[in-house]
Write a structure and sequence with these properties.
Number of strands: 7
CATH class of the largest domain: Alpha Beta
CATH architecture of the largest domain: Alpha-Beta Barrel
Oligomer: single chain
Shape: globular
Distance between the termini: 18 Å
CATH topology of the largest domain: TIM Barrel
Length: about 280
């Protein structure tokens, strides 16, 4: 069992890199990738923990990409022996997130929700503050009971406290990953919000820009959708990946390695990724 899409306290996960690896070993994962949002500051600790626990670790990152339809994220995977120099490039993205966060706080206060920046920081981890941390702060203050309710009313796209932020476009994100020696993979393609014909058009464009893979195995993909992504992966000669998108307490129903108990990423998915890096 493997899981190539997870988050730690260095973005919007609730577990430290070490605790994430300990859990991976406990549930029997053979390989795990850490793919925190817009940053790789937890990778060194993650890889050290993987070596100690005897779990194969894969350094990664998840980059938010500018997209007109739905939500588009790009996963970047790197060789375990690699030290990708992406931090300076990712700094601009994180700065955009920080600027956006201050405006979100102002909007929430203006609408009568009495939370402070310290409240939000107290719900965050060690690095990137995102909308889920605002949601948790509002829940802890007693304004809401569930994260989904916060997003449906306030923080989702088009809602009163939603604020857009700086993002790279698809070509820039792919180029950034590949120039650092990584493999660029389209994350959770279902969230792009395109039907089969539109997805073919998008994939044609992304492959021309250097896309190398697609996340076919994902908790929110049913069996039919997974088969569809696998078919498109074959059609476009794309590497297949998969993972739970585990965040820990941020989404307690989602389990590491198994998602909503419906996920089983084949071990050969990691094998193919290793082969791409020349590791056998």
């Amino acid at each position: 069992m493997i899981d190539l899409h997870t988050h730690s306290t260095f973005s919007d996960g609730s577990l430290t890199p070490e605790a994430l690896v300990d859990l991976a070993a406990l549930v029997g994962l053979k390989a795990i990738a850490l793919t925190d949002h817009d940053g790789m500051r937890g990778i060194a600790r993650f890889m050290a923990a993987c070596r100690t626990a005897g779990v194969h670790g894969i350094p990664g990152v998840e980059i938010s990409v500018d997209c007109k339809s739905g939500t588009l994220h790009m996963l970047g995977y790197f060789s375990p022996d690699q030290e990708p120099g992406l931090e300076s490039a990712l700094m601009r993205i994180r700065q955009g997130r920080e600027d956006r966060n201050q405006v979100i706080l102002e909007k929430l206060n203006h609408q009568g929700f009495k939370i402070t920046w310290q409240d939000v920081l107290g719900c965050a981890g060690e690095d990137v503050v995102g909308r889920p941390h605002f949601a948790r702060a509002l829940i802890e203050k007693g304004y809401f009971k569930k994260k989904d309710d916060v997003f449906d009313r306030l923080l989702g796209k088009g809602k009163p406290a939603y604020v857009d932020r700086f993002r790279l476009n698809a070509e820039e994100s792919i180029a950034m990953i590949r120039s650092a020696g990584g493999v660029a993979v389209l994350a959770h393609p279902l969230t792009v919000g395109l039907h089969r014909k539109g997805m073919r058009v998008l994939l044609t464009d992304l492959v021309a820009k250097g896309l190398q893979g697609i996340e076919a195995y994902y908790p929110e993909h049913d069996a039919s959708q997974t088969r569809n992504w696998l078919t498109l992966a074959t059609e476009f000669n794309l590497l297949v990946t998969g993972g739970s998108d585990f965040h820990g307490a941020m989404n307690p129903d989602l389990r590491l390695g198994s998602g909503f108990c419906n996920l089983a990423v084949p071990d050969e998915v990691a094998d193919r990724l290793y082969e791409r890096f020349g590791i056998h």
